[in-house]
Amino acid sequence: MSERHNGYYKRVSGDAVEYEVFARKTREEPLRQVGSVVAPDDDLAMAYARATYDEERWCEMAIVRKEHVIELWQPGEP
Amino acid sequence: MSLSDLVLSLADNKQMLGLRYAEWATRAPSLEADIAAAAMGLDDLGHSRVLYGCLEPLGADPRGPERESDPAAIRNLAYFDEPWTEWSQFVAANAILDTAFTVVIEACVNGSVEVLRQRLRKMLMEERYHFLHGRSWLRSGIEPAPLLRAWQEALELFGPPGSDIDGLSMGPDQMRARLEEQLETTAPHVTIHWELWDPLRRRTAPGAIDTHTFGMLRGLEEKKYAPPAAAKQTAV
Questions:
Q1: What is the per-residue DSSP string for A4-25?
Q2: Main-chain phi, psi angles of B134, to 5 degrees
């Protein structure tokens, strides 16, 4: 998170973490990643995710801290 | 003081809140906060449209022709009279005043008037995200002056003790308690001169929205740039 108004608030980039945003339009389809947001806490991440990705009529939306995602392998790995 | 008067006050306040939020859509502390300001602005402008639409079914539309020429006829809290110059003002409005409006809407949704019970319910779901946004920023710490002012104007919005309105599920004292419960704090000590309280505008401070904003609300700012033919048509 960047700081544009020096002295007006305390938040700085070091406080913020990245959250992955998942959503689906119908119960039949699986949750898929639709983007990410950067926020200093879960409350703000929920508000940001809803504000940023509300252009579709999602029936479900969820967010996960990126650091909590456990990768089994990455592109290019066997 | 009728229920229609309260709904018009809520509608005007939501319109002004949405407008002030939107003014910060490119000035907030981060891109995410910019987008949230724009989204919350759209939500509140939409809520104001729904509230204005409730006036006719309520039976007595209190809007008069003076609203076209007199900024003081708009029933907004003094907090919205001028554009905000600091992020702290945005956060105090978002956390305290937006939540106070939601408390009044809860009182309508849980009240006895069917049109309000039905039409306003969806607002409560959308407002959940405004609350999360405001509470989170509030916890990060803001300057005390706008916070104190927002609390005072929230209590003025609820009205003086004993000024219960038929059709609502809560009176002023219960609304105050509900706001404190939501924000997990107690209201700061503020002195309100109720003898100066305007029951229609639900505020003690004189004044009105700035000329530029009033012109924008009335469409005057757009008419300024209209070609002469269009301006003539508009005047007819």
A1: -STTT----GGG-EEEEEEEES
A2: -65, -45
| CATH number listed for the domain at residues B3-235 | 1.20.1260.10
Interface test with chain B among A2, A3, A5, A9, by most B beta carbons within 10 Å: A9
Is some CB atom of chain B closer than 8 A to the CB atom of A39? yes
Three-state DSSP class for B233?
Answer: helix
At residue B150, φ and ψ (nearest 5 deg) are -65, -40
The pLDDT value recorded for residue B231 is: 56
CA distance A51 to B127: 12
pLDDT in tens, B185-203: 999 999 999 999 999 999 9
Residues in chain B closer than 8 A to A50 (CB atoms): 39, 129
Structural domains in chain A, sorted by start: 13-68 (3.10.20)
Please report the ipTM that was assigned to this predicted complex.
0.80
Taking the C-alpha atoms of residue B207 and residue B78, their distance in angstroms, rounded to an integer, is: 7
Q: Kindly report the nearest CA distance between residue A65 and chain B, in angstroms.
A: 16
Residue with tokens 């906060």: B33
